[in-house]
């Protein structure tokens, strides 16, 4: 039985196209790189959740997320031994390349965030560890060529290659 889930994340690009990402690891999901983001609270919109998660995970309060949606996708994983099929919205915004602000040690430990970094487009295209969503290098290459999509790109259900996939 799948438990439906919803999450939202933010692709923060610097002025030259580098993207900010976190490296996650836990026993059920495995190692992967993903943008700041997380689950929606009850009654919370995807955009509001994305802004909240960005603030909680980076300390950045001055990044404006206007609602431009890069993509949505579904993926499977397990949480506390329970299979989850999660629908995730990825918003797109720009910001300066900088470090997270404040002491986020406890928050990152609770979320199984091991570290963070800015990725150049070439580094992202040649990543050796899983990216969530896996199509991220191609999506961002399209953004560099054509600008933000007029409508969100629906990637549908994507296998992540992580433990517990469906």
TrEMBL record:
PROSITE patterns: NUDIX (PS51462), NUDIX_BOX (PS00893). Its cofactor is Mg(2+). GO terms for molecular function: hydrolase activity. InterPro entries: Nudix_hydrolase (IPR020476), NUDIX_hydrolase-like_dom_sf (IPR015797), NUDIX_hydrolase_CS (IPR020084), NUDIX_hydrolase_dom (IPR000086). Pfam families: NUDIX. Keywords: Hydrolase, Magnesium. Residues 3-141 form the Nudix hydrolase domain. Belongs to the Nudix hydrolase family. This is NUDIX hydrolase.
């Amino acid at each position: 039985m799948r438990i439906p889930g919803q999450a939202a994340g933010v692709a923060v690009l610097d002025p030259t196209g580098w993207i900010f990402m976190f490296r996650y690891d836990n026993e059920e999901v495995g190692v992967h790189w993903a943008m700041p983001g997380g689950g929606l609270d009850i009654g919370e919109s995807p955009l509001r959740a994305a802004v909240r998660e960005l603030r909680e995970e980076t300390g950045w309060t001055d990044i404006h997320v206007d609602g431009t949606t890069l993509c949505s996708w579904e993926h499977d994983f397990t949480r506390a031994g329970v299979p989850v099929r999660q629908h995730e919205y990825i918003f797109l915004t720009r910001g300066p390349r900088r470090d997270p602000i404040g002491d986020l040690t406890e928050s990152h430990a609770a979320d199984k965030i091991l570290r963070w970094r800015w990725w150049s487009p070439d580094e992202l295209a040649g990543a050796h560890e899983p990216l969530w969503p896996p199509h991220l290098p191609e999506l961002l290459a399209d953004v560099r060529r054509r600008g933000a999509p007029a409508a969100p790109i629906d990637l549908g259900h994507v296998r992540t290659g992580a433990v517990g996939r469906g």
